[in-house]
Amino acid sequence: MSAPDDRSAEGRGDPDRSRETSATTAWRDLRRFTDARVGLGRTGTALPTAAHLDFQEAHGRARDAVWSALDPAALRQALAPLGSPVLHVRSAAPERRTYLLRPDLGRRLAEGATLPSAPGSVAFVVADGLCATGVQRHAPAVLERLIPALPLPVGPILVAEQARVALGDEVGERIGAAAVVVLIGERPGLSATDSLGLYITWAPRRGRTDAERNCISNVRPGGLSYGEAAAKAAWLLRAAAGLGATGVALKDEMPAGVLPAP
Amino acid sequence: MAFAQTIGGTRYVFGDLKTLLARATPFRSGDALAGVAAASAAERVAAQRALADLPLAHFLDEAVIPYEADEVTRLILDRHDAAAFAPVRSLTVGGFRDWLLAAEPAAVTALARGLTPEMVAATAKIMRVADLIQVAAKCRVVTRFRNTIGLAGTLSIRLQPNHPTDDPRGVAAGVLDGLLLGAGDAVIGVNPATDNVEAVMRLLEMLDRVRDRFDIPTQSCVLSHVTTTMLAMERGAPVDLVFQSVGGTEGVNRSFGVSLALLKEAREQALALKRGTLGDNVMYFETGQGSALSADAHHDVDQQTIEARSYAVAREFSPLLVNSVVGFIGPEYLFDGKQILRAGLEDHFCGKMLGLPMGVDVCYTNHAEADQDDMDALLACLAAAGVTYVMGVPGADDVMLAYQSTSFHDGLTARAVFGKRAAPEFEAWLARMGIGADGDRIPARLSPALIGLT
Question: Does A33 contact B173 at a Cβ distance shorter than 8 Å?
């Protein structure tokens, strides 16, 4: 893009000057419509210093969030009032670095895990994933709204450490669940380090692919609200029960009108 | 067929072609995760020497995944153009590298249909970064829909205005911001937060209204699953480009919920809409090293070779745009800035050699050992290599997908530093609208109020 400097044409006393000033404000005003980094201005072709350092700060915080840990005791306490048994499990990945490099270990339960049997139920896995902050903060509130709306019997809730989404397949299979809902910490971004994702898998068993799941993402204040996420999950579970499947076969055609207020 | 090479008094044996390719690959975490990486630096070089001595024609005799077992292998071999291959058919992989570095650009470009993905992947494995840049820069690939992408001296930008809840006004604000910073000639492409058909159609209609209102010579795309886009087309939505993520084996495509037959059907449906004014390249594909292993559909083939095979899938459908999402798949496949840099250049080289309009999402996630400095280095290398397009994300921060890519500013900088321009129709539009005449001002013709931002 060429950037000819036509400022010389804008002499002092230019009758359009005041209109241009308000137009300048309008570009920054785009921020009213989105949390994206719009209207940052520019110096030459680059970011102005303040915007550059804002980005660096956000990246630093996100990097730190990747290494945040789940507090299983506090989570179990927060989930206890929901009335389902709450258990604590770990994946086969012993710590964070191994977890990052070996996703296969994060998809398997550690040896020796004992799970209850709850055939035909919807089981829940509350998993740290790539950032524990969002799960810790939002999972109890989503489940509090989802569980009463379930079209199927309510199964156990498992708090899982160093876990990937597919850990739910082994959990669901061993429980004998009709479906598993994995509530998992999403990869931290710069604007949000507390985002929660919900992955719903019908007839969970080891070896399911991601095309056989439905996903609800960006659950957090400022993203999808707790109520919206719970309503959508309940809708998908009802549709999955009718279809006998989740994934690409199950199109999300939930009409917008049935969403509750946040 | 087995291969052997002795270096430093040790004899290394590689049981078959896919093992030879894997052991010859510069180190990356995904090949270690798959258990196919060389066990030592010496073994890697032994494999590279053995690979350099292999005749290119051998790739037509030994498939890395059996012909009977995989529709991507069948596509690759059935579509091979012997006449286009003729100029290099007698060369070894090493001889081919030498040939490419000395060849005239037109001769390199003319080979595309005569090359298989495995041939170009093998060649990339014995090339340095400088080689990958220099040879890719010789390839010329031009595609068209409402503008002309890939002409010499151009660098296009995909405007990526994602929003966490697909709010149409939030997306529109991102679109306007990008247009004001010269982005959007490759496509205005939104990744939707959900695959809800109604939400996807709302976005398609909004993007089309903005394009129409400002009369922008470009195309829009909502990057939903191909089946969702097909449903949207059935319901009359204004679909310019059909998007899909694809991979290099039948199994990874199955994990994405697609097949060659489904992609063909989607393309025909889009062609029937006749929305392109300058051309009929109606497909947009994304790929990325590691997706096959992630879906457990890699057949013990290294991730760079499988990535190149995904380009055979893409080229079958004459796409307008193809890009690797190189740093997006995660650190278990590309651990740090060094691995991402090389992989991005390999992907661009392989795509261009196979005749694709290749872009790269220069990006990383927050659990990778990488930062914006690494992206600056990759973007500069890609611009030097003549990359067709890169992404433009507000402030480089994708607030929906939670990763960092290149910003609108980065696109402007790359164009300025490397003397590149936007696609000609789009550049003329920027001038017509007064964009760039004053960096701080929104020209009246692009007033936010015109697209409902009041």
Answer: yes
